[in-house]
Amino acid sequence: MFGIPIGWYLTLSAALFVLGAIGLVLRRNAIVMFMCIEIMLNAVNLTFIAFARYHNDLGGHLFVFMVIAVAAAEAGIGLALIVNVYRHRRSLNVDDINLMQG
Amino acid sequence: MIDHIAILIIFIFASILGATVVALSVFFGPKNPNRWKKTVYESGSEPFGDSRLKLDIKFYMIAISFIMFDVEAVFLIPWAVVAKKYGLYGFAVAFVFITILAIGLVYEWGRGGLEWD
Amino acid sequence: MGNPAFDILSILPFAVACSFGMLILLLEVFQRQTASRSYLAGIAVVGFLLTAFVSGSFLPTGTARATFGGMAWIDGYTQIFTSLFCLAGALTAMIAPRYLQEHGADRGEFYALLLFSVAGMIMMVAAADLVVFFVALEIMSIAVYALAAYTRRSKLSSEAGFKYFVLGAFASAILLYGIALVYGATGTTNLAAIGQAFGGDVARGATGDAAAMSTLAQNAIVAAARGADVSVAAVIGNTGAGAVPLAILGATLILIAFSFKIAAVPFHMWAPDAYTGAPTPVVGFMAAAVKAAGVAALFRVVSVALFSDSFRGGEYGWVQIFFALALLSMVVGNLVALVQGNIKRMLAYSSVAHAGYMLVAFTAVGFRGGDISMGSGLVFYLFAYTIATIGAFGVLSWLGSRGMPCDNFEDLDGVGYRYPWIGLAMSIFMLSAAGIPPAAGFIGKFLVFKSAVAASAAGGPGSGLLIFLVVTGILVSVAGVYYYLRVIVHLYMKKATREVPEMPYGAARWAIVICAVLTLALGVLPGKLVNSSEQAVGQMAGRADGVYQQSAEAPLPTPGGIRLIR
Q1: Class of domain A28-92
Q2: Do C169 and A102 touch (CB under 8 A)?
Q3: Which of B105, C261, C446, C448 has the maximal Cβ count within 10 Å?
């Protein structure tokens, strides 16, 4: 892999994944939370690609295709749901989304 | 590391080029400042309100449908690369795939998802 | 390469469900906005029945085959769950129309989404490869996100959909990361290959050196971060102990993601909100079919890919995880359900508790004295649970679609006298959920706890803990009887606080009747289903313990033509 050890790729992707997870927990804006999920998915993609190169196996690349497609579908439904919530609430702050006592 | 030297060279070259162009225009460009030219918007009135405009919901609609149909290319390109090898069977599978997409498009069209107004 | 003809035949159930979904979408678009959509529910029911029929008739019972070059398994396990999901989908489609009309959401997309999600469930249970599994899970989940937010004009529904989506997508990301780590450790995403990669020397070597393993597990990522490649260097030959911690970390993440999907404590926080807000027929579908699909797929993943000793026992084995999840889910679910005033929230927590009972079966299976065949109790439990849950939510939505929204227990007052049959059906469902004979839930609970006791009887370290789990489970389910009986008390022993209008019954009644009859029938005559579930689990293709193995070269699917190869 051009001399860069796989560890660096794994570190980068683990860091991205954790950043996404932390962002999802801390940020209150629905769109930003959604972007955090996308970051996590892309971190996973990086992990897959790194391992696929490491094992010299196409399965990982294939998985990344699937993840990209699924992420697009999730983006579609997620944005639609966020728009729907916004129509009711006029706000994207998840702290305002509290009709149920949860 | 030696494999990446080309990238480094491009990086340095791009930085130098960008800086040079900006510097040239700063140093040699004609400058005739006056009171109005020094305002934020030279040709208009002072800005007011939030610069983040609320985008119409239609843009979301377009964006959502775009990403749906855009990403499907991810499956078609690998098939296209090996289309000859997989012959009729592969073609049939790709055809089914595109048919399903087309049904999605017909549905969206019929639902009014493609109308701007 | 597989055989194209067989491949296409083998995904026929999936294809039928998807085709009916697309057909309904097209029918929906090309008709007047004002026309009633109830007939689409009928088409959906036909679609579900046809799917189940195709699935059942296509392969003779007791046969199994891998299709698409080992991407999916068509076997008894797939078939029995296909029929369960189709039943759940058909019942939901019968219950929904009036409710949707009442809530201004009479659109055909509902039934299309139902069909798509059932198609996803079928594929999820059939999956023999984590790629297929992941895509199927998302087909199911994405459809259900949309269903949860289906009544768009309701604030509650849109919030429920949003919350369900965020948590669900989060769980998907965790699942993916887990899959990626397992892939890194083994170099494959095929379930059976993963099982083989860790079934041999690696497992024994790793469990033998528990202390070194735990250090490695904690340091797997850190070590990788240093660029030292310890975590993966040994993987290529599948020999070092280093590969196991990476895989165990991945497996743990996969299990956590599943716990989100099936709403096990402490990953249940989305469930009460999502269940309270979503349209009632959808809640029944979510609580029953989606959970059943998650549990069924998890059981396949666990018993095919993660069954080696290092995954089950060991320092970080999943038996401990399942033990903790089962205990917490049963206790928290039942105790919190006790104090709920809202009936949908009560049922939500009760479904959390049921996830706990299901996980008891996993704990038993993963226990040293357990084996995969003990999962047959789980299959029966899923049938009993699914039917009773859909029925209970069906009663609620039946009432809710007649201008009698049912939020609190008080809203049920006097319904039992006004509508004796509905009251009787609801009582049966509650008895089943509480695990009181003669309803099916009793047999399910009995089988699950029996498997745990049997596993602990085989001895081994920690068998006392398993008994402790069973005793706790029985105690909290006795506590749970209180809130289930509370529903019956409100149905029959309280004076009606509001005018109960005279109303027509509609198709939903038949769904409720079917659920009630099935619940009773399975409770009184469980033998047939118990046999089929034992058969389904016994013949689950690719089992890690090698009891049952499908042949790659089995003959083509002419009727009766596929042999069982042992």
Answers
A1: mainly alpha
A2: no
A3: C448
CA B36 to chain A, closest CA, distance in angstroms equals 38
Question: Side chain identity at C438, as an amino acid letter?
Answer: P
Q: Which residues pair with B55 in a beta bridge?
A: none
Encode burial over C241-266: b for 16+ CB neighbours within 10 A, e otherwise.
bbbbbbbbbbbbbbbbbbbbbbbbbe
Q: Which positions ≥6 away from C18 have C-beta within 8 Å?
A: B100, C115, C116, C119
CATH label of the domain that carries residue B86: 1.20.58.1610
- Residue in chain A closest to C229 (alpha carbons) equals A7
Distance from CA of A23 to the nearest CA of C (A): 11
Asked if residue C468 lies in contact with residue C462, where contact means CB atoms within 8 angstroms, the answer is no
> Which chains touch B (3+ CB pairs under 8 A)?
A, C
ipTM for the complex shown: 0.94
Establish if B105 belongs to a structural domain: yes
CA distance linking residue C462 with residue C60, whole number of Å: 41
Please count the helices (runs of H) and the strands (runs of E) in chain B: 4, 0
B76: CB partners within 8 A, 6+ apart: B94, B97, B98
Domain residues for the domain of B95 are 2-111
Locate the chain C residue with the closest alpha carbon to B86: C1
pTM assigned to the model: 0.86
Domain positions in chain C are 317-540
Three-state SS for C461? coil
What's the distance, CA C438 to chain centroid? 24
B17 close to C (CB below 8 A): no
- Rounded Cα gap, residues C48 and C78, in angstroms: 15
C401 three-state secondary structure: coil
Per-residue pLDDT of chain C (566 residues; tens, 9 = 90+): 456 777 778 888 999 999 999 999 999 988 877 778 888 999 999 999 999 998 887 666 556 777 887 888 888 889 899 999 999 999 999 999 888 888 888 888 999 999 999 999 999 999 999 999 999 999 999 999 999 999 888 888 888 999 999 999 999 999 999 999 999 988 888 888 888 877 653 433 333 334 334 334 434 434 443 343 444 443 433 434 455 678 888 889 999 999 999 999 888 888 988 898 899 999 999 999 999 999 999 999 988 888 877 777 766 678 888 999 999 999 999 999 998 888 889 999 999 999 999 999 998 888 876 778 888 899 999 999 999 999 999 998 888 776 667 778 888 888 888 888 889 999 999 999 999 888 899 999 999 999 888 888 876 667 788 889 999 999 999 998 999 999 999 888 877 766 666 666 677 888 999 999 999 999 999 888 888 888 888 877 767 665 555 444 343 333 333 333 32
Q: Does residue B30 fall inside a structural domain?
A: yes
Backbone angles phi, psi at C129, to 5 degrees: -140, 145
Q: How far apart are CA C487 and CA C130, in angstroms?
A: 42
* Assigned domain for B117 exists: no
How is C216-251 classified by DSSP, letter by letter? HHHHHHHHHHTT--HHHHTTTTT-STTHHHHHHHHH
Asked whether the beta carbons of residue B3 and residue A3 sit closer than 8 angstroms, the reply is yes
Distances (CA, A) of C16 to A53, B27, B100, C22: 38, 71, 13, 10
Q: Which residues 3-32 on chain A approach chain C with CB closer than 8 angstroms?
A: 5-8, 10-11, 14, 17, 20-21, 24, 30
